[in-house]
Structure formats: C-alpha cells, structure tokens
Design a protein that fits this description.
About 80% of the residues lie in helices and about 0% in strands. It has 9 helices and no strands. Helix 4 packs antiparallel against helix 5, helix 5 (about 80-90) runs parallel beside helix 7 and helix 6 (about 95-105) runs antiparallel to helix 7 (about 115-125). The radius of gyration is 17 Å and the shape is elongated. It starts with 5 loop residues before the first helix and ends with a helix.
C-alpha cells in the first residue's frame, strides 16, 4: 500500500482536475500531458482511466485499454475502467470480449455510472441479435438513470423489434 502524502496527493489531484478540464475543452493532447504528470506524482485508478479515455479520443484504443487495465489492478472495485474497456472493445468490433468487462462494471462496488455499463451490454446483445437480453439490459440502464435519453430510444427500438 502506498504511503499517504498530502502534498503529493494534492498535486496529483490538481493535475488530474486540470487535465480533465482541458479534455472537456477539446485540448486532448494537453490533457494527456497532465494526466501523465498526475500519474508520475501519484498513480491512481482515476488518472489511468482518464488517460485511457483521452487515448480513446485519439483513436488509440490499445493504449486506452492498457491504461484501464492498470486502473483495475490499482482498484478492482472501481467500475469506470471496466465499462471503458468494454466500450473500447465495442468500438474495435470485439463484441464478445466486451461482455465480461461490462458485466463486471454492473456489479463494481465503486461505480456511480452503472447505467453506462448496462447500456453498453444492451448494445452488445442487440448487435448479437439477442433482443430480449438487450431490452432487459436497456431497462436496467433506464432504472438507474431515467434521464439517459439513448436508453429510451434503445428500448423503443427493441420493443418494436420484438412486436
């Protein structure tokens, strides 16, 4: 276990926040530099996951997956990297490989965005032609976040397919 160092942790968190803000502003290359600085000061699952996200925006899915795998090793209960790995696998056509990652995200202890994992699982099932399971996954996503509009559209599409 890493020793707690308030200054080190604060510096890493500062770099992470700044990187996130830059990425949200579309300055992905600068964000990557700051994510790397944050990780150099104090490796965290959040920084690895965010760096993976930045790499994915650049189309660097292999690097993105590797960063998320590092996040999982640091904190196996952090759900974001599981979902992100699943999403990157979907983006690269690795639908079947995405399932175990997304399933783990739906049960991770530390994950507020479970609806993303359920939605992505729905996408996998839909792609594979299992509309009943897709509909079930989309309904789980909607239960967890009724405001996620993509889920409502997916549910309507699946209901139409099943009727």
């Amino acid at each position: 276990m890493t020793e707690f160092n308030p200054n080190k942790d604060e510096d890493a968190a500062k770099f992470l926040r700044e990187a996130y803000d830059l990425q949200m502003a579309g300055k992905v290359d600068l964000a990557i530099e700051l994510y790397l600085k944050s990780l150099a000061v104090q490796p965290t699952p959040e920084a690895h996951t965010c760096l993976g996200w930045a790499y994915s925006v650049k189309g660097r899915y292999g690097d993105a997956i590797r960063e998320c795998e590092k996040a999982v090793r640091l904190d196996p209960e952090y759900g974001n990297p599981y979902n992100d790995i699943g999403a990157y696998m979907i983006e690269t056509g690795r639908w079947e490989e995405a399932k175990p990652w997304l399933e783990k995200a739906t049960t991770a202890e530390r994950y507020d965005g479970r609806f993303y994992a359920w939605y992505n699982l729905g996408r996998v099932w839909e792609h594979q032609g299992d509309w009943t399971r897709a509909l079930e996954a989309y309904r789980h996503a909607l239960e967890q976040n009724p405001e996620y509009s993509l889920t409502e559209k997916a549910i309507r599409r699946m209901e139409a397919m099943l009727n």
